[in-house]
Amino acid sequence: MSTRTFRITVRGSFDGLTDGQRAELLSEAAEHDMLRAEFTAEGHLSYDLAARPFFTFRFLDSGEAEEDILDATARAELAAEAWLTERGYGFKQLKSQAQDLSLAPLGKRRRQEAARSAAGEVGSGR
């Protein structure tokens, strides 16, 4: 059985931040800029607190079966909650969305590569 890769996005909004917490988040905003967002095993946080109170965590996880995406999503939610709670940041309205990359449609370049690969197999008598 092959390993499946999951992308999990956990979104929410900051709630009841103190002036000090807000200042701390604003001082670290460059590290959490939306343009630097990536999916990582530890989870990558992005936000633009100057514009709005919303945040997004992006997690990368894996599993053996399609059903493993549920456990991966639960782990991502718990990790996001733990990160926020450890720092004393209030939050609300957490929502998660997960994608199994093995089920994602291929982009144009990957479709072309797959077609070339399949043509090579046919031509070589495999």
Radius of gyration: 19 Å
Helix content, binned percent = 25-40%
- Give the overall form: elongated
End-to-end separation in angstroms reads 22 Å
Number of helices: 3
Calculate the mean pLDDT score and round it. 88
| Total beta-strand segments | 4
Uncertain spans: none
- Compressed to H and E, one letter per element, the order equals EHEEHEH
> Main β-sheet, in a few words?
4 strands, antiparallel
Q: What is the strand content?
A: 25-35%
Please give the order of strands in the largest beta sheet.
2-3-1-4
Given the helix and strand composition, which structural class is it? alpha+beta
Written description of the protein model:
The structure is a single chain. This protein is α+β, with helices and mostly antiparallel strands and 126 residues long. Helices cover 35% and strands 28% of the residues. The protein has helices at 19-27, 68-86, 108-123; strands at residues 4-14, 44-47, 54-63, 91-100. The chain has a 4-stranded antiparallel β-sheet, with helices on one face. The longest helix has 19 residues, at 68-86. The relative contact order is 0.23. The mean pLDDT is 88.
Question: Outline of this structure?
Answer:
The protein has 126 residues and is α+β, with helices and mostly antiparallel strands.
List the helices and strands and how they pair.
Layout: E1 4-14, H1 19-27, E2 44-47, E3 54-63, H2 68-86, E4 91-100, H3 108-123
Task: Offer a few descriptive terms.
alpha+beta, 126 residues, 4 strands, single chain
